[in-house]
Every structure is written in C-alpha cells, then in structure tokens.
C-alpha cells in the first residue's frame, strides 16, 4: 500500500482459517508491518479472539470499555458526546514493561464520506533512514514511558483520576531502549513516541525534550506512512513492535465504532546487529 509498510490481503475469510493461512498472515505481517482485510462480514468477537490467540495471549485495557462476554475486546467508540481524545502518533501501551506484540482492529460503524481513517508509520524504515552516527548514538540510550502522561487528557476530565486510580497504581513509569530489536525478524526500529515517552534518561530536561521532538518529527514524515480507509467489516492487524498509528479525527460529530484486541508482547531489548 506504500513504500514503507502496509499490505492488503485479498480473499481471506478471517472467520475460517487453517494453520497454513494463519502462518501466512504471520509472514506477511513480519514483512509489511500492518496488514488489512476487507469484507469480513462474518467476523464475530469469538473469531476476533481466536485469531488473536494464535499469535499469543490477549490483554485487557485499563481505560476503555469492552464487548459483553469478551473482556479482552476493547470498544473504541466516538460520537457527538464522546469525541476522540487521542490524536497523536503512538505505539500502543508502551507504558507497560512488556508492550503488546500487536493489535487487531475491527471496523463496526464507520463515518460516511471517507472519514475516520487510520494512519500507520514504520519506525523501522524511519530508523534505517537516519545517519549512521545518529543510529549508533541512539542505540546507547533508554527512555521513560508513562501511563499517566499518555492519558493526561482522560485524567483531567471530571472524575477521570478517580476512574483510572487503579490503572495509575498498576502502571508506574517504565524504561525501554530508544532502539528496539524485533524478536522475530531482528530488524532495528526506533521505540519512542510522543504520547507515552516522557524523557530520555541521562539527559537534562531540555536536551531530552529536543531529542524526542526531533525523532518524532523524523518518524512522522510522509515517506514512512500508509493510510487505511475504513469500511464496515474491515480489519487491520499491526505489529506494535515496529509501528505507530493515529486516528484521523475528521469525523466529529459522526459516529465511529471499532473493536480492538491486543496481543501479549515481550520486554523490549536492543541487540547489536551481527
């Protein structure tokens, strides 16, 4: 779908997959970082969970409601009374010691007129495009990621801090490498994002903020992106270890509803290439 990342798989029925098809999805995900499927009219929450569990354990999210009977399937729903609060590029849940492997997002209600798209970017392509000296420097650094920082808008709402009190206790700040090695492909990628990354360790506040801003500006270039135009019953599956994403919030006050399941990941690490 774009030079840096993204592929659409045509003809797959995600409600009826054998082992060979599931492994083919794994292979295309590793190659293209985000994979899209159309016309999944028979894709139920049970199918959604089954597909995710082929790739690992599934998670619950502390800040969003879930589908009845499926606590691991998060509902992302916005309308006139519930505008979207997240507009920034981000990697999901980097505030956890082991951020997710990936997420599978199912479009249920899509705004009309081609609105409510999702953009993705490749942090691996962005890393590869950096000067060699900068790559060497970044490989020596670590950064802090924070739930509280990422959900500051939700916490600032009336009753928000009380509603998320347990999530705050359960998710203290964590530290991850600035450059992450992919545990399956071995690819190196940048691993900071403007939503959850608060600071670079061993730097003063001004220097840290400047470097995070520089890296985010670099990653967000058009050449590292692809854009998915949602239709009802479309599905997106992204590798959270290599990508960032953001919703295009151009549809308010229209109704947009998606259902997401998030797959367990491992602790990020950096390992120098051979």
Percent strand equals 25-35%
Q: How many structural domains in the coordinates? A: 1
- The fold-level CATH name is Double-stranded beta-helix
Query: Whole-number average pLDDT?
Result: 95
The first-level CATH class is given as: Alpha Beta
How large, in whole angstroms, is the Cα Rg? Answer: 18 Å
Spatial strand sequence of the major β-sheet: 1-2-13-5-15-4-3
What is the ordering of alpha helices and beta strands?
EHEHEEEEHHEHHHHEEEEHEEEE
CATH architecture: 4-Layer Sandwich
How is this structure best described in words?
The protein has nine helices and 15 strands. The protein is of the alpha+beta class. The strands form four sheets. It has a seven-stranded mixed sheet, covered by helices on one side. A three-stranded antiparallel sheet has the order 12-6-14. The radius of gyration is 18 Å and the shape is globular. The model has no long low-confidence stretch (mean pLDDT 95).
Topology:
Layout: E1 7-9, H1 19-32, E2 34-37, H2 45-53, E3 66-67, E4 70-78, E5 102-109, E6 118-122, H3 123-128, H4 132-138, E7 142-145, H5 147-150, H6 152-156, H7 160-163, H8 165-170, E8 174-177, E9 179-181, E10 188-190, E11 197-200, H9 205-219, E12 225-228, E13 235-239, E14 243-247, E15 256-263
Parallel strand pairs: 1-2
Antiparallel strand pairs: 2-13, 3-4, 4-15, 5-13, 5-15, 6-12, 6-14, 7-8, 7-11, 9-10
